[in-house]
Model the fold of this input.
Amino acid sequence: MGRIAALLVVCTTLLCATEWTLRIGGMHCIACTLAVKKALLGVPGVQKAKVNFKNESATVSADESVTLRMMQDAVAQTGYTAKAILP
Done:
C-alpha cells in the first residue's frame, strides 16, 4: 500500500503542475539569476525554476497551491520584481 500511495502523490503532483512565466525586473548578471532561482525554489510547491537574466524572465513549474503573490514576495525579498507574463 505504501508504494501505491506514493505513486498517487507523484501522479497528482504532476497532473496539478502549473507553469508560470515571469518578467523579472532588476537582474543584471548571472549572480542575479542564481539569487532569483534560489528564492523561487524556496517557495513551497515550486518544483522547477529556470531564470534568464538576458531575457529578464523566469519559467516556473509549480503545483496548484502556488500563487503569483507567493512568487512575487520571494523574489522581492532578493531585491527584484516579478510580474506574470500572460500567454
Remarks:
- Confidence is low (pLDDT under 50) at residues 5-15.
- The first strand starts at residue 18 and ends at 25.
- Residues 2-15 form the longest helix (14 residues).
